[in-house]
């Protein structure tokens, strides 16, 4: 319980650093017997973040389709040692191992990212990255991007409705439809661009300047301990991989 | 067109991340040399949001699905702002949607961002000549840039996957995979060229200041 509370109050900068460290150490793993270990570490963070399995599975849905499409053919075309043969279908040992390695590494990293960074508000993530050295121009852009998702989505919906009311019916695979869509997005950019310039100038006139943000201060001892723990886990994973590779 | 986590070995992802940091730092140095670097931020953010939305729309082309990459368009519209814009969009897509990955941010940023930077340079170089020759020539240039940006992104993506996937695949299967991926993306490359041409032509007629990564006299050096 205490560990869970520490995790939810963990300094955002330490969370980001720990995630990057662990994710890269996971991607270093090539030994098949270490795959359950990295998956267990990732699931440990799911438990700490109190992320429900239902939410996690929902978030993994679409990314899973991409990875399955990428590895599904590997057992049939990758490698030279025949594991199983039935008619024209041959399953190779190296291909099957490669598919398992890619898929499990993918799930371990994805689960870790969803549990540790995905449970943070995006504004907090951007502010923490800015205090860790992300240039102010990029931090500013990232903050505005979050706002423009909604602006563009609303404007797109309004303009598409207006087009439909005037009799426009989009035909898939038609050049004229594509041209109309390009012009629709052109109109959207123009409208949103003028408004975004006005809003940004008004923000600056009112004293907005990301470069002058107050420092977030040094992380507390508890935060550094958790980061140290992540560093140790990453180090152990890298050590075990190096041992397995000998 | 985004490479997910877990596919590429660590040296490749770490090397690509270092290259992306270098390219982004170089782009930001160029941006800081502009008279008012903050002037272009709202527009870059707006295009980043649009890139984010448009690149999450998947078009099914069996046996896979593709999505718009907009490398050429980003380069034409944002100039040097394209590289930081791509990095931000790819990070947000990885964290919010699981599209791409955290360890492959560097690779994915190079796949989309490098063609965008090249397209931006090429467009700035060729634009005066194309405009002197008339509207058709400008439209052709925008089509060529949209097509080139997308085709280059596909080539970098396919080569990265085939060269660095941690499984030995025999030469004939590799060639077949290469051919399939190229064929699947051919309609997308042409669609991107047309989309870029019509959009650039639209801006040229309505608000030419928006093109070439310049805002209200804030020209790209």
Compact description:
The complex is a heterodimer of chains A (246) and B (221). With 246 residues, chain A is mainly alpha-helical.
Structure characterization notes:
Chain A is mainly alpha-helical. Chain A folds into 2 domains: 12-126 and 219-245, no CATH class; 135-206, no CATH class. In chain A, 74% of the residues lie in helices and 4% in strands. Chain A has helices at 2-8, 12-28, 35-49, 53-71, 74-77, 93-116, 122-131, 136-165, 175-205, 221-245, and strands at residues 82-86, 89-92. Chain A has a two-stranded antiparallel sheet. In chain A, a hairpin with a 2-residue loop joins strand 1 (82-86) and strand 2. The longest helix of chain B has 36 residues, at 171-206. Mean pLDDT of chain B is 83; it is low at 215-221. Chain B has a two-stranded antiparallel sheet with strand order 1-2. Chain B contains 7 helices and 2 strands. Chain B starts with 9 loop residues before the first helix and ends in a 15-residue tail after the last helix. In chain B, strand 1 and strand 2 (64-67) form a beta hairpin. Chains A and B meet through helix 2, helix 4, helix 6, helix 8 and helix 9 of A and helix 1, helix 2, helix 4 and helix 7 of B. Chain B: Keywords: Cell membrane, Membrane, Transmembrane, Transmembrane helix, Transport. Chain B: It is a multi-pass membrane protein. Chain B: This is Cobalt/nickel transport system permease protein. Chain B: Pfam families: CbiM (PF01891).
Question: Secondary-structure map with pairings?
Answer:
The complex is a heterodimer of chains A (246) and B (221).
Chain A: H1 2-8, H2 12-28, H3 35-49, H4 53-71, H5 74-77, E1 82-86, E2 89-92, H6 93-116, H7 122-131, H8 136-165, H9 175-205, H10 221-245
Antiparallel strand pairs in A: 1-2
Helix pairs in contact in A: 2-6, 2-10, 3-6, 4-6, 7-8, 8-9
Chain B: H1 10-32, H2 41-54, E1 58-61, E2 64-67, H3 71-78, H4 82-97, H5 105-133, H6 135-164, H7 171-206
Antiparallel strand pairs in B: 1-2
Helix pairs in contact in B: 1-4, 1-5, 2-4, 3-5, 3-6, 3-7, 4-5, 5-6, 6-7
